[in-house]
Amino acid sequence: MNWDWSVILKYLPRLLEGTWLTLELVAISGIIGIAIALPLALMRVSSSPWIRAFPFAYIFFFRGTPLLVQIFLIYYGASQFEAVKQSMFWDILKQPYWCAIIAFSLNTAAYSAELIRGAIQAIPRGEIEAAEALGMSKPLQVRRIVLPRAFGIVLPAYGNELILMLKGSSLASTITLLDLTGMARTIIARTYTPLEIFLAAGVIYLLISGVFIGAFRLLEKRLNRYQHYRHQVPVELTQIDPRLQD
Amino acid sequence: MDLQGFGHLLLSGAWVTLKLALTSLAFGLLFGLVGAAAKLSGFRLLRLLGTLYTTLIRGIPELLLVLSIYFGGSMLLMWLASFFGYTDYIEISAFAAGVAALSIAFGAYATEVFRAALMELPKGQWESAEALGMSRTQTFFRIILPQVWRLALPGLGNLFQVLLKDTALVSVVGLDELMRQAYVASGSTKEPFTFYMAAAFIYLGLTAIATAATMLMERASNPVSRGARA
């Protein structure tokens, strides 16, 4: 086997081009996904079984089927209906770029909605009761207490979801998009050096997820800083009364 | 839903999907156990290798893994075989590449599940087994493993769900599993939505069965509920 480092160097600019598209897909679908996930999660914790039914079915479908099926369902499936082809949506649905974004957004929304639901249910009851006792209306409670608190709780789990989304975005290459994986496949078709180029692509993915993990650690430290706060008791006092030690 | 006579094609694809998932599960569990043993071992080199395995594999997309093994695997195998004087062309099948990629990915996550379960067990279990005169291998297989199984089951159940869905990726390298058969059927009928929806429901059915099976196994492995039934 002849290993060729030069091919990696030569095609690095193209790989970075693909990396940019990958990041773009993850960022845009991440934002749309959260926007869909929030109302879904709030519906999911509703006390009415009728309101709970829709998000349940949605989450069940999108978590129980492969992302690849979802992408193909949107990209190839939409063309089956004449009505869709005649409508104004066709301009969007015929483009692989937007199909990928729609599929990723709907998919990540299902996973994020479950995470946010878990976080909402993890908020201590007392905090909600306190808000109620202060005379806050339901919408005000959600806006000022529930969502900000849920945001802090969900953060570590959402970091994982973001990494999974980054890895899932490689499926964009199956509908002709030149994201990092798509670009790697194109380069390999020309040079036939699969091991070298896939290695380079893998390292780039690892670097991106490393940056994500680091960024989330920082964000977590800042948003949940009350957890890291230590009550400082002077040493002289703890010597007098050992119970004052943490 | 009118499948226009392509129903049997989808079913045969589902069968290949199932075989792929179960074979990968068997190898994946093995990789997970070996990985966990390496990560908890007393040798620094083994611990390092274990960490390298889980960090690398969990950070790259499964699709990239499938593609690398399918397109790069035969080159790698031929290079290895050349050391033993074997110079013929070696081709790697889509099924084998799929099993390799999916089980390596499953194994990396399973390593963490097994490691957590192994650390959960009290050290006294090992010590009392030693006091009874059992060898370390005996202790592992008779005392530790049955208990690890019970602790690891919920985590492994989740991983198997992910594995079932990841089998769809192997269609990209041409294995005739469910996803690819849906692609073929929608190509010749011009009804892609119908067939991808049908495939989606078959996947939903498979994951539902997997969840039910995990729940049954969890109940069977739990001594308390077993006692309650008797």
Automatic annotation (TrEMBL), chain A:
Top-rank taxon: Bacteria
Transmembrane segments: 20-42, 54-75, 95-116, 146-166, 197-219
Main subcellular localisation: membrane
Compartments, record wording: Cell inner membrane; Cell membrane
Sequence ranges assigned to domain ABC transmembrane type-1 in this UniProt record: 19-216
Keywords (A to Z) from UniProt: Amino-acid transport, Cell inner membrane, Cell membrane, Membrane, Transmembrane, Transmembrane helix, Transport
Membrane association type: Multi-pass membrane protein
One Pfam family named in its UniProt record: BPD_transp_1
NCBIfam families: HEQRo_perm_3TM
Protein name as annotated: Arginine ABC transporter permease protein ArtM
Automatic annotation (TrEMBL), chain B:
Superkingdom assignment: Bacteria
Keyword Glycosyltransferase belongs to the record: no
CDD domains for the chain: TM_PBP2
SUPFAM superfamilies named among the record's database cross-references: MetI-like
Residues of the ABC transmembrane type-1 domain: 14-214
Family: Belongs to the binding-protein-dependent transport system permease family. HisMQ subfamily.
Protein name: ABC transporter permease
Lineage, top ranks: Bacteria, Pseudomonadati, Pseudomonadota, Gammaproteobacteria, Oceanospirillales
